[in-house]
Fold each of these.
Amino acid sequence: MISGITPGTLLQHVSEERLVDTARELVDISSPTGHELEMAEHMRALFAELGLSIAWQEVEQDRPNVVGTLAGEGGGRSLMFNGHMDTSYSGSEPHLRGIGFRPSAVVKEGRVWGLGISNMKGALACYLEAIRALIDSGLRLRGDVTIAAVVGEIEKTQWGEEFRGRDYRGYAAGSRHLVTHGVVPDMCVLGEPTEQRIVLGHYGAMWCRIGVAGPFVHTAFSEGRLPENSIVRAREVLDSVLEWVPDWEERASYRGLRGVVNVGAVRGGFPWRLSRTPGRTDLFLDVRVPPTMPMQDARRAFDGLVRDVRRRHPDWGIDSDVYVTAPGAEISEDHPLVEAIDRGHSTVFGAPPERDAVRWFSDASALTRYGVATVNYGTSSGLPGPEGENLDVEGLVRIAKVYALVAADVCGVAE
């Protein structure tokens, strides 16, 4: 039970129609990473309608975080609902044609479809509906409740000369700015798609490059030199990586999950000029790092791999770099926020939520480094199928109800 309220009194103010309308509005605004301004302006207008105090944080030009706060009466803990506005895709990718990959919402058969609905505009809509329900119910809370709509969460980053600028500045860029500029609540809920489970821990990511050199010559003069070709050499380098992976998988185990390494990209040569051998070929690795492992240890493990490759091939010009180190995050199962979500979820769903650990990254990585205890907990339809992102309307409504209860529980109800 939540002291000071009857749950039904609060939950009756959660409106499915209003929630779905909000979700549709948000999906209809295109907001890929680097282009969140229109979405932020819309969130600011919605915060203003609710009478929230508003902070506008210019992370970089035309990329603002927008923060709305329902002030408490004092004496309670503060809670933030945090959600990123940027979407995983732009909606113009030729290989993603389903209705759920487009920034245009469709509601059919009890589901909302559209780009960003599950990651994570549906969560933002749930946050807003939870705050509306608290206001409409007349409850006065002791602690502050904040909604932070942030830029730049999607797992992407700048690299090299080609991939630069705001389109590539993700990996918690917005939430990192948030906590370094005054927004440091006691606790935070991230409504990432978790299948209504409480995520007690998630992996971080280390992105690495291993490069190999080779001669740069005209094809006409390359007879007998194929083994020196940097792409051919990269095949042997890749074999060394694949030999290293099983050891990493074991070493990086966490909560029943094994570590994982993805060979995410290969770059070498010139598609527009195949008459030249490639002077360099690079392999790119996404190495998932458990939250219990310091990034320095992960870096040392990768450096050991590179040294081994270099010993095997001392004349191949092997070089490397690490260009993302985004730590994981975890929270104790007996933390008050976890307990509050347990109570709210049990009230709405009739049973406590399951626990989970995941290998994906979230903004909890940045928030927890500033002492903001953070839980990932939200609704989800699972990974997008060929038709793209979609969420069950009933799931959205239930999660909004849980969020309203969690806010009242964490922040406390004023007398």
Amino acid sequence: MNMISTILSKIRHPLVANSFYLYVAHFADYLLALIILPFIARVLGPEELGYVGLAQTFGIFILLIMEFGFPLTATRKVAREKNNPKNIKVLMGQVFSFKLFLIPVILILSTIVILIVPIFRENPHYVFIVVIGSIFQGMAPTWYFQGIEKLSTVAFSKTIFRLLGFSLIFLFVRSDQDGWIILLGYMISSVCICLYLFKYMVNIIGPFHLAGSSSINIMWQKSKYSFFITILPVIYNNISVILLSIVVSPIQLGFYYGSARIHRAFNTLYGPVGQAFYPRLASTDSGNPEKAKQMTMRFLWILLTVGAFFFIILYFFSESIIMILLGKEFLFAANTLKIFAFVLPITAVTHVLGRQWLMVRGNDSQYFKILLIASMIGIISIYILIKSFGILAIPLSLIFYELVTVLLILGFLRKVK
């Protein structure tokens, strides 16, 4: 009986409960997309799938501009101020004022991208759809619910509205000309999630006022390094994919996108437990730094074990996974997926030491410098490798990027001991 009580108490622990709800949200965001991938891949074919993947990659870039590092800085602030509603209302006004300021910047940037990227110039409506969806997804106050550790709301909204979007995809995608409908399904669900979470948040904290123009500079100073930390890997990835789209054929781009989509599905599994762990680590560190350090080390070993397990699955079962999810038409991508498998255990280490520990300790600027150096080395390696290795160049360069990041973080931590 005591054992059952102990197990139940652990299940009810906020960290476990929040991790569960974040994995439900993750299921709605990524795993449902992976489940419908076989249908999409077979209907669209490699070439159109590559176009859709390129548009979604750009959408992720726009999303991170809209978020501007607030999932790190604003979550940390809400976690420490959750018992002070007045301060949280001020923060809300500042965050949403800053996000509204970003919208015209994003529209100008998107227009420039349409003009200079050939694939987007031929399909400008792809960019328009993903940009609208990314703006609304970036406006959704997920960071507020993460900070107050009320993640069941996020899980519920994402599950319901992503299912709505995927239902539209199943109903209306019928040929290789329907790639835009997939993007539209995601956009509609993002708009619904944003409106639902915003209304729910206002019901909790009450109405708040937008901040004045002076707050834009304040938020820039507070969040610039967190923004750079979140955007640098995506800039690196976008540059990689754009270079790839210039050098390889559309069909090879589709092969890459298929394997990258599978890698990303595994890679993002680190996110939910990390997002649940982060506010708790921030709260613990403010009162007991030594305990926070011990928590981080335990978390590192857990995630490293998970990463090793992911490696085994992707490396040894790559062809079977591709056959199930993409079909035999995509078997050429099996070697690409095997190289992506090596990235996953290293990513587990960088996630804990960088995105968790360095950020909680307030070493935002140092972490940014580390990622900047690693990104530059990664881009240079792609430029060197891409002509000889084709689509394999990106996962190979990603290994270099992650290894450099780990070495630089360890060097910094040894220096500040």
Amino acid sequence: MKKIISVLTISALLGQAAPVWAKKTAKPARSAAAQASAPAAASAASAPAADTGMVAAAAMQPPEIAATAYLVRDLQSGQTLAEKNTEQQIEPASLTKLMTAYLVFKALEEGKLKPDQKLPVSEKAWKTEGSRMFLKPHTEVSVQDLLRGLIVVSGNDASVALAEGLAGSEENFAKLMNEEAARLGMKHTFFENSTGLPGAKHLTTVSDLAILSAAMIRDLPPKYYEVYSYKSFTYNNITQENRNLLLFRDDSVDGLKTGHTSSAGYNLIATSKRNGRRVVSIVVGTASPEARATESSKLLNYALQGFDTPRLYQAGQVVEKVKIYKGAQNEAEVGFLDDAYITLPHGQEGRVKPVLETTQPVVAPIQAGQQLGVLKLTDGDKVLAEKPVVALKAVEEAGFFGRLWDSIVLWFKSMFSD
């Protein structure tokens, strides 16, 4: 196997002309503007995002963050801009309710539940300790109100009532939570309950919480997500405010979830949308409600003020053509199934060099969507980001004589390769 490296141009980047270095390339990629008519390849909205291991180069030093672990990520590019201890297992506390809400939202979308459907409040739900929306036992409450109690006021009673209503018991619901975590790729997460109350095995990581946060925004219609922006909720003549202080301080913040226990500290997943960019920050183990808001604000501002996220390629745009052996066609067009973005420090757009790496030989048959290489965005010797490129169209096998000829070609190549 031999790695093939091609240097491409990105004349589409921010609408600028191709930089000087691009004129020296042998195989320049066509710009997004020139390919406005390229077919868009669709991908399933519910599919978990691939972990491309992308970390952006820093425009400036990240801020000092007083938290056990933290992360800030641009959700368009998928790039992490600052992080600490993201793979360390931590207690999620009420950040757990993000998964609880995600499963209920999916059930609503699939028609398994209705917003106005009434669910019973059990003794267990009523007696659950911690924050609550003050449900009364042996009453029935709509799914819509229970969701608002779950999300806005972090009601543990609402969480248990929803879990029991959807799965029959909280124990069964926890199984659904773990199945969904596995599907999304949350490799270091285990849920024991729907509320986030402490449990010996009830653990996650900041990295896994980032996956779940992205899924909440990516997989579901905005009508569900908007509940996270509600500043208060009144139920049973009791009004409680959302504990996410950033909702009251920054108009661009529209979520996501707070959490706290004495052992976990004060946690916050915050999301902000400014100028078309969506950024998520996660802090865990801070010292107070004020601290989690302050540290989250520092991360969000660092990402949104210090970086830009231009589009590199449109969905379905041909980035390059890769040599194919034993195929009905000799080449496969490669690109991205979705619009491809990169997050860069301000002023560094013109320094970026795209390098496509493929491993030869690539042998037919090739499936549409099959990964055929990696596009690396570099600044000198530094790799800023990596994105997998895939075949945009299938390539079927050649006939008998075509396959025989390429087999002979590959044999000679193997004989004289290094």
Amino acid sequence: MRRIASTLSTPRRVLALVCAAMALASACLLTACGASSTPVETASESEPPQVSDTPLPSSSSPTDAASSATSEADAIVADMTLEEKVSQMFIVKPEDITGVDTVVQAGEQTRAALERYPVGGIIYFGTNLENADQTRAMLTATQEFSHEVTGLPAFLCVDEEGGTVSRIGGTEGFGVENVGDMSAVGASGDTTYAKEVAANIGTYLTELGFNVDFAPDADVANNPNSDTMTLRSFGTVGSEVAPFVKAQIEGFTEAGILSCAKHFPGIGGAEDDSHEVSIYSHKTIDEMAQDELLPFEAAIEADVPFVMVGHLSTPEATGDDTPASVNPAIVTGVLRDRLGYDGIVITDSMGMGAVNERYEAGEAAVLAIEAGVDIVLTPADFPTAYQSVLDAVASGRISEDRINESVTRIVEAKAHLA
């Protein structure tokens, strides 16, 4: 296998990727600006800005800009090696690639790790986050290494929902209050408040250097026999949860952080915990469409950048008990085709018991990508999972076009972070 480090060590090649990423970011900026009446131009240091009294044609539309952004993303992907592309399809813990027991800083080991495995992103947990200064320094250095190695920003991720799932808020050393459980936010009946909560979380996360928050929780806690998601969910009825999910996505977006609706197709009614064992829903898809899917539809309407697929088994909906995270009937059939989602699909952690009791790490990663997933989150054995995907492409089990499809989505999302 060709080593990524040797490929990426060529300055000219990295510079080309950086330039392409900058062009993509400019195209995405045009998309965001829409039909702005004032043309925006960029000038290099070597060329003075050109001033003209003649207005530029106003025929450019957001659709044109989006098409340009896609073309730029295609160009970046075309210049990447297979190893680079497959690496981008993983988000891992920092320990997974550095070999360090607990990572609390980013130095030469982190740089070397990213040269060997230029992953799409890194997720940090409480053990990695000691205080604001340490976290900011670690994330800043990691992001600099990612730009140097790949020409692209890394997704720097955290689970920060508030309440029982909070790595920063309420933790000594950060000076930030925990915003509380989302069940209380939902009980308030105030979606404006929900948006403010998300904007608050997004603001303190971006100030630390994070750019992805795996929130909000879009599950519906509709099973009185289960308390697994009771505090994390906005409520017990899908139609009531949906506007809170939409409001929080808007709040995160305004704060400048990428959000993620989870855990598709909705695990709030499951009685067990997928961290430990398989979990089930015995509803049909049509029944889920009346309740569990409504918050995800609202998230898609709000242009949520990520949707996280859980490990829920839905035998009445799909005909077998294959977990949703590796089930094409759920990922492609429902999320992509039925709901029309074209953003980034990411699995829930592939180190959970609901997956590990069925599949080894490599097979789980391959199955997820075959199902339509774009990013595999924290596999139980990352090197094995990574190599298994490469082997699946080499054998023809997964086409390189399928890899390109996912990596293009990833690159397009990263343009907004450049």
